[in-house]
Amino acid sequence: MATTHDELSDTDRLRAAGLRVTAQRIAVLDALRTRPHATAEIVHGLVRDRVPGIALPTVHSVLGDLTAAGIVSRVSLPDSGSALYELQHDNHHHLQCVSCGRVEDVDCAVGAAPCLHPSRDHGMRILEAAVTYRAICPECERKLNG
Fold first, then answer.
1. Distance of CA 128 to the CA centre of its chain
2. What is the structure's pLDDT at 69?
3. For residues 136 and 95, is the Cβ–Cβ distance under 8 A?
4. Which of 48, 75, 102 is the last residue of a domain?
5. How far, in Å, are 33, 83, 126, 135 from residue 37 at the CA level?
6. Which of the residues 63, 68, 126, 130 has an alpha carbon 20 to 30 A from that of 50?
7. DSSP E strands: which ranges in 1-146?
8. Residues at the annotated binding site for Zn(2+)?
9. 105: CATH
10. Do residues 30 and 57 share a domain?
11. Virtual CA dihedral for 97, 102, 103, 106, nearest 10 degrees?
């Protein structure tokens, strides 16, 4: 039986992507596992204790390498001041609170990439489709109606 992407260890995932296994890369992957949809600054804050002396530019570099290797996804959402990062997994969409910025994953309606088909593709091969649902989370709704 074949091993799925989710069953691979971080070490195996890095090696399969042709990347060296480093403490910085493992720490960034662990941080994204515990805090998906994190900015580079948030990831930096999470890995500083584990990798003393790690600089923010190093975290940016690691995130870039992991994104290029397809291990991490870079997510750009409206009203987010910075790019967000998450571990790469199945095709999905995002739900974003317009008040506090909270981001949650939403399963794709069809479940296969791409799950949306444009009315016209202009001769291009679709690689991915992304939808961002903009909403108000329950906590912000309570504050608004407070």
1. 15
2. 95
3. no
4. 75
5. 10, 9, 24, 16
6. 68
7. 72-75, 84-87, 92-97, 103-107, 132-135
8. 97, 100, 137, 140
9. 3.30.1490.190
10. yes
11. -60
Token pair belonging to 3: 């091993």
Residue 82 domain-assigned (yes or no): no
d(CA 11, CA 120): 41
Q: 53 with 66: CB under 8 angstroms?
A: no
In a domain, 85, yes or no: no
Q: What is the pLDDT of residue 12?
A: 95
- Detail the residues annotated as belonging to a binding site: 97, 100, 137, 140
Residue 58 and residue 74: Cα distance in Å, rounded?
Answer: 16
- Write the CB contacts of 3 (distance below 8 Å, at least 6 apart in sequence): none
Secondary structure of residue 53 in the 3-state scheme: coil
Q: Token pair for residue 55?
A: 């600089």
pLDDT tens-digit map of 67-125: 999 999 999 887 778 899 999 877 788 888 988 888 998 876 654 555 667 777 788 88
Neighbours of 93 (CB within 10 A): 17
